[in-house]
Every structure is written in structure tokens, then in C-alpha cells.
Amino acid sequence: MSIHTKEGRLFIVLGCFFVANAIVAEFIGIKIFTVEGTLRVPPLNMTILGFEDLSFNMSAGILNWPIVFIMTDLINEYYGRKGVKFLSFLAIFLIGYAFLVVGLAMWVEPAAFWADNNGFNMDLAFDSIFGQSLWNIFGSITAFLIGQLVDVGVFHRIRKMTGERMLWLRATGSTVVSQLVDSFVVTFILFYWNPNFAWTFDRVLAIASVGYFYKFLVAVLITPILYIVHRLMDAYLGKALSEQMIAEAARK
């Protein structure tokens, strides 16, 4: 696959969006926001497993994960499981590299005029935002990798059963299954096995269920966007090349 071909250039574009959004999600994920408050609606105050007043308080990293969902499904559709696995491992490597560079940036001695900016400790703010714990890093990377591998497997299993029909089923189906795994893996690593929290099993299960319910809704709602991008890619590639790539991807 050459950079001078349409399929080569398209893979680079999809791969860049995939990796860039994965890295950005890791760094903005430190912020927790309220979905209901953002939408200016009352909190849902759900009760799950006896835990009351549960609402959609989500990591900001979820804001661009829908793009990762779409990129994963489209790469699966046109480049097969090898394409998704390659980009998933590349993303993990680059996320790890990014954290190392940030760690180095936190370690270097700050300039005095910058650190004390009119009484505001810039260095402390920098370290507070970028200095995520090893549990956060380990949990998010582990959940991401497992979720991507599950997504690939489910996508191609559904494809074998349905052929080229029902893109929505293999795309949405693989996403809702993979995000079920992702949501529970990352939540249990961060809050159940992490000695800094060590929450009860039922409490972690309830929190993970809220997160998954949100991701499930998003996966369903973005299905029309998947079809729009799919049509744009078909128009760029041309019917013959598009059909050839999809057929080859199903065999990979």
C-alpha cells in the first residue's frame, strides 16, 4: 500500500485521526464533567444495586471517543483486522511515549518567573493536570487494548454471518460489546484493584454500569454519522476500489 494511492492516503488520514483522538482522550480524561449539567437538564439520579443518586458524571475523555469508535469501524471495514490491530498497538506505544515526555516536562526545573505568575503557582497547576497516576495510565491503556481486540473480533464475526449487508449491525454491535468490556475493565482497575480507592465490588459495578449506559447511547446515536463518513469514503475511492477493499478486508 503506497502513499501515492488513494487507499494509502486514506489509511494515513484515518490512522492519524484514530491515534490523535486516542492520545487527546488520555490527557483530557482527568476532568470529570456532568452530562446533565452540560445539557442543562436535571440529573437522572438513578439507583443501581442499591446505590442512589447516580448520574452521568463522565471523564472528559469520552468526548472524542465516538470518533475513535467510528475510525475503528471504518478501518475494520476497509482494511481488516490487521489494520485495526496495527493502529491500536501504535496508539498504545505513542500514548506511553506521550506520558514519558510529559513526565520529563514535569521533572525539569521551572523558571521562577513562570512558576510564580502573580501569586498563581503555574508549576503546581501543570503537575496537577498532567500528572495522572500510574493506575490511571495502566487502567486506560489496558481497557483500550482489550476493548479494541474485542471490537475487531465481534465486528468480523458479525460480518461472517451477515456478509456485506447491515453495516450498522456489525459497527454498532461490535462497539457496544467492546465498550462493555472497556467500561468494566477500566473502572475495576481504577476503583476496585487500586489500593487508593478499594471500593466495594457492588459500588464499582454500579459506577461501571452508568458509564457503559452512556457509551451504549452514544454508540447508537452516532450510527448515522458512520454511514455519512462511509459514503464520503466510497465517493473518494470510487465504487470499484471501495468494493475491492471491503472484500479484501473481510478475508484479512
Distance between the termini: 15 Å
Mean pLDDT: 89
Structural class: mainly alpha
Large-scale geometry = globular
| Count of DSSP-assigned helices | 10
- Stretches where pLDDT is under 50 for at least 5 consecutive residues are none
Main beta-sheet annotation: 2 strands, antiparallel
Q: Give the beta-strand count.
A: 6
Order of helices and strands: HEHEEEHHEEHHHHHH
Sequence of strands across the biggest β-sheet: 1-4
Number of structural units classed as domains:
1
Helix content: over 70%
Approximately how much beta-strand content do the residues carry? 5-15%
Instruction: Determine Rg (CA atoms, Å).
Output: 20 Å
Description of the molecule:
The protein has one domain (6-251). The chain has ten helices and six strands. By secondary structure, it is mostly helical.
Observed structural traits:
single chain; 252 residues; mainly alpha; two-stranded antiparallel ribbon; 74% helix
In short:
By secondary structure, this protein is mainly alpha-helical. The protein has helices spanning 6-28, 35-38, 65-107, 112-115, 122-130, 134-162, 167-191, 201-221, 223-237, 239-251, and strands at residues 32-34, 46-48, 51-54, 57-59, 116-117, 120-121.
